[in-house]
Amino acid sequence: MSARQSVVTFYYHLLSQPSRALKIFLDHNQIKYIPKEVQLAQGEHLQPEFEAINPFKKVPCISHDGFVLTESVAILRYLCREFIVADHWYPKDSLLQARVDEFIEWQHIELRAPLAMYFRTKFLMPKITGKPPNQATVDKMYKLMVVGCDKVENIWLKDKPYLCGNNISIADILGACEIEQPRMSGYDPTEGRPKLKEWMNRVKTDLDPHYADAHTYLNAIAKKSSGESVGLSKL
């Protein structure tokens, strides 16, 4: 662990899956931070002030003693090294750590990409543009999303309570926040997948009240099939 223990500045928006994962991790582990919510609907992420912090113009990112990180996985690993957190989050043991890395590397393409694109294509872009979704793209992302969720059910959770073993890790926070995302567009990945549902409930129980707090906005959207009652002005 580093000697640096100053406060982290955290740039985020809770519509972003990795933003939610980082907020949950920071809150659960009582890591002090200065919250900087970036108003995406107002284009704050595109302004020169934010570009000076993150040239990729995306959330989340952090600044810590002038050191800026712009990728959520790198940020989580960094926080595990820089602050006092339980070893199970990102184990020092090489084999256990490799299991966590294994899921994190896998999920970028096989889970995050289709779930995020399904939500974006079916729900987000139609709300922003006022145009109907491209059904061919929605169907393509749906098929890929189902395959990814089935792999979590049948492979990652086949014989263990958490994605990477017997203890919760940063992989579980990242994975759970991704699984939540398509609920806003009317698809619940836990339906028909009992192991996935049990795991999600286990993760929520482990991380509440911080998990519930980070998903307040998402849950409000998910409860409305049309999403009309929750405006995107809060994005």
Automatic annotation (TrEMBL):
Residues 93-225 form the GST C-terminal domain. The lineage of its organism: Eukaryota, Metazoa, Ecdysozoa, Arthropoda, Hexapoda. PROSITE patterns: GST_CTER (PS50405), GST_NTER (PS50404). The keyword Transferase applies. This is glutathione transferase. GO terms for molecular function: glutathione transferase activity. Residues 6-87 form the GST N-terminal domain. Keywords: Cytoplasm, Transferase. GO terms for cellular component: cytoplasm. Homodimer. Pfam families: GST_C, GST_N. It catalyses: RX + glutathione = an S-substituted glutathione + a halide anion + H(+). One of its GO terms (biological process) is glutathione metabolic process. Its EC number is 2.5.1.18. Belongs to the GST superfamily. Theta family. It is found in: Cytoplasm. It comes from Sogatella furcifera (White-backed planthopper).
